[in-house]
Amino acid sequence: MMRRFLSGALALLLAAALTMTGRAAASAEIVRAFVYDGTLYTYVAIEGAEAPITKAEARIGTRTFPAAGRLETVRQAGAPVTWMLLVDNSNSMPAFREEAEAFAGSLAQSAGENTRFILATFGDAFSVAGEDVPAGELAERMEEIPFDETVTRLHTAIGQALDYFEGLPRERNELRCLVILSDAVQYDPDGGIPYEELLERVGHSDVMLHSVGFGDDQEALDSLGRLAAASGGLHQAIGGLTAEEAGTALKESSGGLFVTGFDLSGYTASGGTERAAVTFSAGAELICRAEAEVELPAREGTETPPPAQAPSLPASQTAPSGGTVPPEAGTSADGGWPLLPVLGAAAVLALILAIAAVLLAKKRKRAAAPVPPPPAEASGEENTAPAGIYMRLEVLQGEPNGVPADLELGEELVIGSGPDCGILLREEGVSPRHARVFFSGGAVWLEDLGSQSGTALNGAAVTQPTVLRSGDQITAGDVVFRLKF
After folding, report:
1. Which strands make up the sheet holding 115-122, listed edge to edge?
2. Which alpha helices (DSSP H) does 292-407 contain, by range?
3. Integer Cα distance of 235 and 223 in angstroms
4. Cβ distance 27 to 46 under 8 Å?
5. What are phi and psi of 221, to 5 degrees?
6. Is residue 352 over pLDDT 90?
7. Residue 181 and which of 24, 34, 345, 354 are 20 to 30 A apart at CA?
8. Which residues have a Cβ under 8 Å from the Cβ of 430 and sit 6 or more positions away?
9. In this model, does residue 373 exceed pLDDT 60?
10. Dihedrals φ, ψ of 380, to 5°?
């Protein structure tokens, strides 16, 4: 009887796996996608993802491509970023000189070694004032702009700035950003580039357009804002916030984008635009997905069938938080992604075995036991974080003693007052090796290491390894903090 019940349950499970759709718990937006040297690069904004991403895939047509490198943010990766500040040089701008200089100084502050600044102006004509301006000199170079042009060919200048970028040699997955500083008033006696044409070009360019608006011509500022929105960029109006705040916000939003590359080896294309869907997952759980139109260069080669199961990210590489499961073979009637292709054969088998174990346990009339805690010391490849998990430390009480806000969880992070601790807390009640955070069984765990004052999670004492979720409140001695991942 039990055997029939078990067989029926497994059959139902398999049928459900063929028809269920994965629902994204988080949201993702591809703000930039382009192909360079046989690799599809995407810059993705992910919101609301709490589980660590362990897999990323791109789908073009019927083909899927696993992530070819580290999955991390621009800030984490130290990815190359080129900023062009395109400054309105017209005679309506002198009143905003100080704000423009303050914005430039804020944007340039703490710029990474792979950050490049280009300073350009426009009025009657587009002009490059400096191609490699040191970050520390950017605001000073802004002081040299005369702001005396009587013609403002805004739309034409944006088109010429995009032309300029197209002529620059690209460095791998370089993020290219065009930042327009203007009161947004377009005055071009010759007409210039039609707005709708420029809007379409901005939307398809591999350059991300941002804008900083000055003045009170709301209609002009809204027009500039639509150009930024078409590019997935950020539009900010000075007045609602300070120039320094605008520079910091732009730097933070760009640095928080996830940059991912997908190797297109073996993929043939005749060129043109294709729809690419990028998915992120945590284990077998769909987290989020996003789609974008991508310009594909013509490629010759032999078409090869997609792998039976998409490989995970290499264990030697990093996968921070956020995610989605990749689709494999078509979509369901309501547009969702079939669960079986998403999970893959191995994941479905593991799920079936897990259900079987639960059913057998019920037969013996034993209550389902809780998931056993991971071993006291994480060891071996199965307990190592899939590629390093990006974490952000937020201290609510106490001092982090020089611990950086951005952390990476590899095998483990030890919390304590000892000099070798990954999270160093030299406060009252913190033991040399107080607790540890580690990855095991597809989850992040918190474990007390026999500390004198104990460890608490959301106010409850940690007496055994406990699953840690992004944003949980951790107390060690007199220090209270969160880890967001």
Report:
1. 127-130, 115-122, 81-88, 175-182, 207-213, 235-237
2. 339-343, 345-363
3. 10
4. yes
5. -65, -40
6. no
7. 34
8. 415, 416, 417, 451, 453, 476, 477, 478, 479
9. no
10. 85, 165
CA distance linking residue 408 with residue 393, whole number of Å: 10
Per-residue pLDDT of 417-468, as tens digits, reads 888 888 998 888 899 999 999 988 778 899 999 998 999 999 899 999 999 9
Among the listed residues 406, 87, 45, the one whose alpha carbon sits nearest the alpha carbon of residue 208:
45
Residue 302 has a CB neighbour count (10 Å cut-off) of 7
Distance CA 389, CA 391 (A): 6
Which DSSP state fits 67?
Answer: B
Where does 32-153 have alpha helices with state H? 74-77, 97-108, 138-142
pLDDT digits (tens, 9 = 90+) for 87-141: 999 999 999 999 999 999 999 997 888 999 999 999 999 999 999 999 999 999 9
Phi/psi class of residue 382: alpha, beta or left (left: φ > 0; alpha: ψ in -120 to 50)? alpha
Which residue pairs, CB below 8 angstroms and at least 24 apart, start in 217-226?
217/183, 217/184, 217/185, 220/183, 220/184, 220/185, 220/186, 221/183, 221/184, 223/184, 223/186, 223/195, 224/154, 224/180, 224/182, 224/184, 226/199
